[in-house]
Structure formats: C-alpha cells, structure tokens
Write a structure and sequence with these properties.
alpha+beta; Ribosomal Protein S5, domain 2; 4-stranded mixed beta sheet
Length: 138
C-alpha cells in the first residue's frame, strides 16, 4: 500500500476513540441541548472537550426486526460521519434511527444525515442550543 493510500485509508477509519461506547457517554449526550430530527433520524449532540467528534448509534429492533436492515442504516450513518469528521469536530453525537429509515433507500438516508450534520454545525457556530428539524428539499 502506498503512503498516499495509507493516509487516505486512515483518514476515513472509524476507530474506537471516535465512538461513544458506554451507557454514561450516551446518557450525557441524550441530556444535551442540541437536537435535530426528521422522519428518518433523531440526532442529539453536545460539545465535547476533544478536538475530534465521537459518534454513537441507536438502531433498535423497533425500527426493523431484521438485523440486515438495521446494519444497513448504521453503515450509511458511519460512512457519512467518516466523510464529515473534520466539520463535526468537538461534538459528541448520538443518532437514533426512526422506523421510516428502514423503508428509505441509501440516497434518502445519506441526504437526511448530511442535512443533520450541516444543521448541527450551523447551530454550534451560531452558539445556539436547539436545531429543530432540517428542511426537507422535496
């Protein structure tokens, strides 16, 4: 593997340090003031003391009983998070999938989560605490 491809690969990894792992970490984020939601996701966030973002995922069996479907939703969110890590630095984020996410295709899920990232970043820049719902451009 060349040096350039190794750097690119490392840039898009999802290592342990950028994941929320414990119940107390999730609880802190759920108590946080930043909220963004639409028909596919509810995204909660708080500022952290790190210079990198951390992500937690909650995709329950209520969303869909099939693990394949739940895993697809998580893959889409993780992929988008990896591509937007630089803009989300300093945030702890929990993404909770809703039932509508199970019926959505990959492009719809991607568009939705990208709008959430954008909304969170804009809110943090403004110093606000609540984001509301991102606009659906349909």
């Amino acid at each position: 593997m060349s040096s350039l491809s190794a750097k690119i690969t490392n840039m898009y990894r999802f290592p342990r340090q950028v994941r929320l792992l414990t119940a107390s970490q999730f609880r802190n984020v759920f108590r946080g003031p930043l909220v963004s939601q639409d028909r596919h996701y509810r995204v909660k966030a708080i500022l952290n003391d790190e210079n990198f973002p951390r992500l937690g995922l909650a995709v329950s069996r209520r969303v869909n009983k099939r693990a394949v479907v739940r895993n697809r939703i998580k893959r889409v969110v993780r992929e988008s998070f990896r591509h937007n890590k630089q803009t989300l630095s300093g945030l702890d984020i929990v993404v909770v999938a809703k039932q509508a996410a199970a019926q959505a295709d990959k492009n719809q899920l991607n568009d939705s989560i990208d709008r959430h990232w954008q909304q969170l970043v804009e809110t943090v820049k403004k110093g606000g605490t609540q984001t509301g719902a991102p606009r659906d451009n349909k």
